[in-house]
Amino acid sequence: MRPILLGVIAAFFFAFTFVLNRAMELSGGSWIWSASLRYWFMVPFLFLIVGLRRNVKPLFVHMRAHPLPWLGWSVVGFGLFYAPMCFAAAYGPGWLIAGTWQVTIISGTLLAPFFWEKVQTPTGVRKVRQSIPWLALGVSMLIVVGIALMQLEHARQLSLTEIVGGILPVLVASFAYPLGNRKMMEVCEGKLDAYQRVLGMTLASLPFWLVLSIYGGLTVGAPSESQLFQSLLVALCSGVVATVLFFQATDMVKGDMQQLAAVEATQSAEVLFAVLMEVVWLQAELPSLWSWAGMGLVVVGMIFHSYLSHRKHAPRPSAKPEL
């Protein structure tokens, strides 16, 4: 249950991303700075955390030994995840982005065949391609149906441009984030903790953010003080707290596709948190009856995921009582 709890707490802090990014867009800020500033601000905080734990040197040793995997998968997991998310915020409200983002629950499950696991056989240990956990995928579909109900009433009010610009980039991000996260877990092989991995991926993705920042400076100019402050809040809440908690949760269940799917399914709670934050923060309208019904399905789906993962790993009773 602990990985599930960490995932839900991470979802709460991740929800700040959708609301703050939308708030920045509404106040005239560019998605380019919303994306890049988050990772620039994350660096000193993560350095402080990892430095206090005296784990910076082992991280740098590992990064020097595997430079290309660190660079490539960090750009995928962070760059191709967050830049499209911020771009989408320019075309759609926070609730639409948060709702569409839940497709990552299915995206992460469908990525299973791209990974291998070590299996003990009579002839020794060999690598076997992982299979899609169909039961977990079915429960994930229940969550997505709930999200669809939440978005149904609002989606009728959107233009084609808002739908395409607000949904397609998020679909790209939904595959990039779990792919980069899981591939980096393979590269690290359990030698680095979640704090080190987040710092390493942030540093390795900086070339991507540097290029985007230069492009932003040339096209839209410098960010405003308001956007700097809000980006700092996103960096703290989502970039540091939420990412570290989520990576800790996935580290605890790595190698088990069903439990990993359950942890990733906790991110569906972002929709619930985002709706509440938009109502309180941006004075958005209260959800309709259909939206509340959708939220109910999301919660039920999360409970099922938690139950399945707990049942699979519950200790089996011994065939004979121990004397």
Count of alpha/pi helices? 13
Q: Determine the mean pLDDT.
A: 82
- DSSP E strands, number: 2
Q: Give the topology string: H per helix, E per strand.
A: HHHHHHEEHHHHHHH
Cross-sheet strand order for the largest sheet: 1-2
Rg over alpha carbons:
20 Å
General shape: globular
Q: Output the structural class.
A: mainly alpha
Largest sheet: 2 strands, antiparallel
| Strand residues, percent | under 5%
> Fraction of residues in helices?
over 70%
| Termini gap | 31 Å
Low-confidence spans? 315-323
Task: Please give the oligomerization state of what you see.
Answer: single chain
Total domain units: 1
Topology diagram in text:
Layout: H1 2-26, H2 31-52, H3 56-65, H4 67-89, H5 94-101, H6 104-110, E1 116-121, E2 124-129, H7 134-155, H8 160-188, H9 194-219, H10 225-252, H11 257-265, H12 269-281, H13 289-312
Antiparallel strand pairs: 1-2
Organism: Laceyella tengchongensis
Keywords: Membrane, Transmembrane, Transmembrane helix
Transmembrane segments: 31-50, 70-90, 96-116, 132-152, 158-177, 198-216, 228-248, 289-308
